[in-house]
Specification:
The chain is mostly beta strands and 155 residues long. It has a single domain (5-151), classed as Sandwich (Immunoglobulin-like), CATH 2.60.40.1890. Helices cover 10% and strands 46% of the residues. The protein is built from one helix and ten strands. Strands 1, 2, 4, 5, 7 and 8 form a six-stranded antiparallel sheet that branches. A hairpin with a 4-residue loop joins β9 and β10 (145-151). The chain is globular. The N and C termini lie far apart (39 Å).
Length: 155
């Protein structure tokens, strides 16, 4: 199997994280890799059985003087990872749909939360149990790529 340069770099980063001391900030529930222009906080994901679906949530603060955009999220141990939003249909029923991106205005915080914008993790390869952590790769329009460590918990 051939891998792209980005995949090799991502695997090297994951390996380095696995071998390094835990730098998790318990107050923020995340590890940020990259500069401080984009701050990720309050990250968590719901437990799920392998092959099912679950969601992840976090806040994004843009400390730059220009707007940025979350373009994609990737969890390598799932069939797919998508940015979704919850909505209320005309008949009053709630639904979810994928969105292409999330705008992060300059100096603002955007909260991904239940009932709003969130990350759908589709068919994880393993059970995600309370107390586990998962690594999500976030790609922004500023070409910044962030790797965050997300704890799995019920609420």
């Amino acid at each position: 199997m051939k891998y792209s340069l980005n995949q090799y770099l991502f695997l090297a980063l994951i390996t380095a994280l696995a071998c390094s001391p835990d730098k998790q900030n318990s107050e923020r529930n995340t590890v940020n890799i990259g500069n401080a222009s984009i701050e990720i906080s309050d990250a968590w994901a719901r437990p799920a059985n392998a092959g099912m679906m679950t969601a992840a949530y976090f806040s994004i603060t843009n400390n730059e003087s220009y707007a940025d955009t979350l373009l994609s999220v990737r969890y390598t141990n799932a069939a797919d990872t998508q940015i979704h939003e919850s909505f209320e249909a005309e008949d009053g029923m709630m639904g979810m749909r994928p969105v292409k991106s999330v705008a992060i205005p300059s100096g603002e915080r955007v909260k991904l939360k239940p009932g709003g914008i969130h990350i759908m993790i589709i068919r994880p390869e393993m059970n995600l149990s309370e107390g586990d952590t998962i690594d999500l790769e976030l790609a922004f329009s500023s070409e910044e790529v962030r790797l965050i460590r997300v704890p799995v918990r019920s609420n």
